[in-house]
Amino acid sequence: xxxxxxxxxxxxxxxxxxxxxxxxxxxxxxxxxxxxxxxxxxxxxxxxxxxxxxxxxxxxxxxxxxxxxxxxxxxxxxxxxxxxxxxxxxxxxxxxxxxxxxxxxxxxxxxxxxxxxxxxxxxxxxxxxxxxxxxxxxxxxxxxxxxxxxxxxxxxxxxxxxxxxxxxxxxxxxxxxxxxxxxxxxxxxxxxxxxxxxxxxxxxxxxxxxxxxxxxxxxxxxxxxxxxxxxxxxxxxxxxxxxxxxxxxxxxxxxxxxxxxxxxxxxxxxxxxxxxxxxxxxxxxxxxxxxxxxxxxxxxxxxxxxxx
Length: 308
Fold this sequence. Notes:
The chain is an alpha+beta fold. It has two domains: about 1-45 and about 95-180 and about 250-285, no CATH class; about 45-85 and about 180-240, no CATH class. The protein contains ten helices and seven strands. It has helices spanning about 1-15, 20-40, 50-60, 100-110, 120-135, 145-155, 160-175, 190-200, 245-250, 255-285; strands spanning about 70, 75-80, 85, 205-210, 215-220, 225-230, 235-240. A seven-stranded antiparallel β-sheet has the order 3-2-1-4-5-6-7, covered by helices on one side. A hairpin with a 4-residue loop joins strand 1 (about 70) and strand 2 (about 75-80).
């Protein structure tokens, strides 16, 4: 009886949050491809310090820029988020790439849905975690080659990773990092910061340089993983890893972290779809009428023989 109530609660929580969960899962799937594509298109040696300084002379003569980013999929270098130039030609790119627009829209929906409904994203993420925990409490399933069997098999086969995805999302929303904040440092001029980075790394492997939380940070991909450093005049210091964000965004193990995120997103989408399908099949299935035992005719008084 207890399992029946757990199963019913599991179904109704999933149905109540099905629409926002669908939006969060699909946009999460789209965003999972960004680190994959970024790593796949890197061209070592294509961006040199001399080339970058020439671009800064041309587009940031006053030295006011504070951020730098290389988007290899779009083949664009972005200076201060205002000026985009082609990596190969140095020509200004006037129009945003379709991929950039797509990613920006997906990130907005993933974090806030519409009309700044961040509270609904947080509630849906918490509901996803509750759904996973309720499914685990139902116990080990009997696997079968049916929709229900695949639903349970995928859920149990990926249970730890499926649970960590919404959990880390909630930790990010709460600002939990499990890392020791580095002391605040004075941000260097962008040109000087890039010189410091170029002294030990190929600038082609730099994803971005920006100021965040009073520190000047740089994210660099060495092919095996993406690492974040604090930039100072003395050099680069590894920043303490933000573990929830690292797992949630799949920015670890290089390409494999992104692959894991894609597979998890597909698994979430399959679980939501099969769960809703199973509920509809259950609702549309004709109910069987339960018949009681056949009623025995009462014995006739006339035919009854007196007992001695």
